[in-house]
Amino acid sequence: MIKGVVCLEWQKPSDSAVKGIQTPLTRLHQMEELMAKKEAEMELLRKQLLKAHHTNHELVKQLDTCAEHNIKSILRENASLKSYVSRLSRENAVLRGLQSRQLNTRLKSFERAVSKFSRQEQQRTFTEDEHAQALKIVICANNQRGRMDGRGDGYSQDLSTNS
């Protein structure tokens, strides 16, 4: 041995001691294996993410198609309902016109009947009792008017003895 120089001799450890001790080369191999596993996991996750992105894109397209279809369907139904409302409005106007004409016809018929009845009443001849009763009513009305005016014409005779 050389003086002042320490020479170390490497001795191979026993098998039980080897398990706890790692050489840099062993550690490097373990890290490479771990990196390969992590890269495989990352590749799997990347593929899953790509597949999820593609599925999401397809769902968005389906949703757009469905929404467009629903909007078109709603617009068609709206146009149909507007047409239906318009038709009902026209029918309602026609029915109101018919009702008005029917009421006018009935009213004119009633007016003719009243007019005919009135003419018949005017042309009818009164019996003596009816004539006396009407005269009595007129005289009583004149007397009432005279008393209210303060004249007292003297027409207050009892007509029941005259007939």
UniProtKB/TrEMBL annotation:
<protein>
    <submittedName>
        <fullName>Uncharacterized protein</fullName>
    </submittedName>
</protein>
<keyword id="KW-0175">Coiled coil</keyword>
<feature type="coiled-coil region">
    <location>
        <begin position="28"/>
        <end position="55"/>
    </location>
</feature>
